[in-house]
Amino acid sequence: MTTENTIGQNRFWGETTAFLALFLDNVGTLIFFSAILVFTFNYPADIILTRMIPGTAVGICIGDLIYTWLAIRLRKKTGRTDVTAMPLGIDTPSTIGIAYAVMGPAYIATHDAQLTWYIGMATLFMIGTVKIITSFFGGWIQRVIPTAGLLGPLAGIGLLLLGFLPLLELFSEAVVGMVALGLIFTALMSKMQLPARLPGVLVAVVLGTGIHFTLGFGGYLPEFTAPTLAMNFSLPVFSIEFLKTLPHSIQYLTIAIPFGILTIIGGINNTESARLAGDNYRTRDILLTEAFSSLIAAFFGGVAQTTPYIGHPAYKKMGATWWYTLLTGLLIGIFSVIGLLSLFVSLIPRAVIAPIFMFIGFEIMRQAYNDSPQSHSPAVSLSLLPVVASMVLIIMGQFMGAIGATPDKLPVRLQNMHQTLIMLSNGFIITGLLWGSMLAFLIDHKSRLAALCAAVCAFLTLFGIIHSVMPTGELYLPWCIKSHANYMVAAAYLMLSGVLVLLTKPLE
C-alpha cells in the first residue's frame, strides 16, 4: 500500500471517528433530555420528537456549518490542509439542567405541555441573548470571578446530574449498561482501540441496543415497550408566539444567565485550546456563532443551547478536518426533518447512553479541579453542595409523585427539611458560583471580596434570585410573600459578610 493510500485511509477513519463521536454526542444528549421529561415528569413525547428536537437541530446545523466555513477560510488563509474545524453541539450540562430545573417543574406546575414548551423556548431565548451580550466581555468575567466559582457549579452538575442520575438508568438495565460501559470507557478513558479499529462508541450503541431489544422481547425487562418505527416529517416552523411567555419565564433567568456565561467562557477556553493545537480562530467569531445558533434555535422550537465542545485537539489527533462538522450539521438537520433523528432518540436505550454522560460528567469534574489553583479545591467542593439539594429534590419528587403525597402531608420536621432543600436548590448555579468565589477569595486572603460575595448573596436572597422560598423557584418582591425565611437568610448572609470584614485581616 502506498504512503498516499495510507494517509488517505487514516484521514477517512479520522473523519469517520470524529463524525460519529460528535453526532452520537448530540443524539445522546437528546435521548437523555427526552427521557428525563417523559419518564420523570410524564411530559408528552410527541411535542419533544416533532417540535423540540427539530427546532434544536436548527441551532446545531447552523452552528456546525458556520464552524465548517470558518475552518475552510482558515485553511485558505494559511495554506494548511490539516486545519480542524471547531466541534459544536448541544451543551450537555445546560440541556440536562433545563430539563430538571426548568421544563420539568414548569410542566408539573402548569400541566400544560405547550406552555411548558414555550417556557423552554423563552429560556433558550434568554440564554442566547445573554451569550451575545457576554461574548463582548466574557474575558473580563473570566478574570474577575475565580475559576472555582465559575466551574464549581458545573462540576456539581457533572458529578450528580450527569454522573449519578445516569448511573440509575444504567443499573435499571444492568446487562445492557455494563456492556456499554465497558466499551465506552475503554474507548474514551483508556484510549485503547477495538479490533479492526472499530469505533468503541458506535459498537457500544449497536451492541447495547441489540441486547436491549433481545432482552425486552424475551420478557426480561419489566418496563420494555415495543418500539414504533414510524418516521414523522417534522419541518421546523419559525414562530414568535413563545415571547408571550417571557413573563412566566423570567423566574428562570437565574438559570439562563449562568448557563449563558459558562458556555461563553468555555468557548474562550476552547478557542485558546484550538490555537495551542495549531488552529488560530478569532475568539469573537467562535463566541458569536454559538450565541447566534442558540438564539435562532429558540425561534424554531428549540430548547437546548449550542456550544463549542471541549476536545478540539482530540479531534485534530484523530485526523479530522472540516468534513466531520459539515456531515454532523447536514445530517442532524436532514435527519431531524425526516424524523430519523427522533427515531434514533426513541430506539436507543438510555442505559446505552448513560456511560457517555458519566464520562462527560467526570471530564467536567476533572476540569474544575485541574483548572482551579490547588489551594482552591475546597471552594470547588463547596460550590457542588447546592446541586446536591437539587438532586435530592428531584429524586424525592419522583417518589412523592408516585405515591400521591404532598409536602403538607409530611411531619412538621420533614416539612421544614423539604422547605430547606427547596431554598438550597432554587438558584443553585448562582449560589454555587457565589459560594465558590467567596471561599476562593477567602483562601487567597481577599477577605473584603469574600465579604462582597456574602453581601451579594444577601441581596439576591431577598428577591428569590437564590434561595427562593417558592416551590417553583419564582422571583418576588420581598414584601409580597408571607414567609420571613428570605429575610432570615439574607440577615445571615449580612452577618457573615460582617464577620469576614471585621474579624479577618487580609495579608498585604
Radius of gyration: 23 Å
H and E string: HHEHHHHHHHHHEHHHHHHHHH
Multimerization state? single chain
State the shape.
globular
Number of domains: 2
For the biggest sheet, the summary is: 2 strands, antiparallel
Number of strands: 2
* Percent range of helical residues: over 70%
Distance between the termini: 67 Å
Mean pLDDT figure: 86
**Low-confidence runs of at least 5 consecutive residues:** 3-8
| DSSP summary: helix tally | 20
Portion in beta strands: under 5%
Specify the structural class: mainly alpha
Strand order of the largest sheet: 1-2
Describe, in plain words, how this protein is organized in 3D:
The protein is 72% helix and 1% strand. A two-stranded antiparallel sheet has the order 1-2. The termini are far apart. The protein has 2 domains: 10-226 and 236-372, no CATH class; 375-502, no CATH class. It is built from 20 helices and 2 strands. With 508 residues, it is mainly alpha-helical. Helix 1 (3-41) packs antiparallel against helix 2 (45-78) and helix 16 (377-403) crosses helix 17. The longest helix has 39 residues, at 3-41. The model is unreliable at 3-8 (pLDDT under 50).
Question: What's the short story on this structure?
Answer:
By secondary structure, the protein is an all-alpha fold.
Please name the defining characteristics of this protein.
mainly alpha, 1% strand, 508 residues, 2 domains, disordered N terminus, 20 helices, 2 strands, two-stranded antiparallel ribbon
